[in-house]
Amino acid sequence: MRALPVSHEPPPADAEPGVLVGVDGSDGSLWALERALAEAHAHAVPLRVLAAVNPITPTAAGVTAGLEDVVQDSVGRLLAGMSDVVQRGVAAASSRVPEAGTPSLHVVAGDPIALLLSASARQHTLVLGTRGNGGFSRLLLGSVASALTFHALCPVLLVPGPKR
Q1: What value, to the nearest 5°, has the Cα angle with vertex 35 and ends 30 and 37?
Q2: Please, what is the Cα angle at 156 between 155 and 157, to 5 degrees?
Q3: What angle do CA 135, 142, 136 make, to 5 degrees?
Q4: Domain limits of the chain?
Q5: Cβ atoms of residues 119 and 56 within 8 Å
């Protein structure tokens, strides 16, 4: 699969309703991505992949004057790294769901909950893994999935990982 273009903007608010999937590179989000491909195909709607990285910004962290360029470089590297993760995840999931269409990819700097909540408006479905990259593996439902289950502006499909 050839590399797909990656936008550093959230999905447009006026776009045709589709399936939105949140990806953070965790196994749970990659299983959700595979399911989202199948859902978008089954409902004949577009698939939008949204990955949010939440960097510390100069204003939020009170970065010393003169270090703004270093922080911006770090944000750029985070976005590039997550773009690579999303590209590889889409390629792997697409090989298992070959009939699915081509998704649009969005890798954005910001709070994952706020970005996914906003992007869920007018969507057909929001698909999420049950656990992400947080350090609390004992939780049955990750913090992002938990917040969005109750506050998303569209139906939410939670995808559990395979049984161990």
Answers
A1: 95
A2: 125
A3: 25
A4: 6-159
A5: no
3-state secondary structure of 33: helix
Q: Measuring CA to CA, how many Å separate 106 from each of 33, 43, 64, 84, 155?
A: 13, 21, 30, 12, 20
Q: Which amino acid would we find at residue 31?
A: W
What is the pairing mode between strands 125-129 and 19-22?
Answer: parallel
89 half-sphere exposure, CB direction, 13 A CA radius: 30
Quick: pLDDT tens for 13-60: 899 999 999 999 888 899 999 999 999 999 999 999 999 998 765 555
Residues composing the chain = 164
**Going by DSSP bridges, is the β-strand pair 6-7/125-129 parallel, antiparallel, or unpaired?**
unpaired
> The domain at 6-159 falls in which architecture?
3-Layer(aba) Sandwich (3.40)
pTM attached to this predicted model: 0.85
Place of tokens 């703004």: 68
Alpha carbon distance 72, 57 (integer Å)? 8
Count other C-beta atoms under 10 Å from residue 99's C-beta. 9
The amino acid occupying position 150 is F
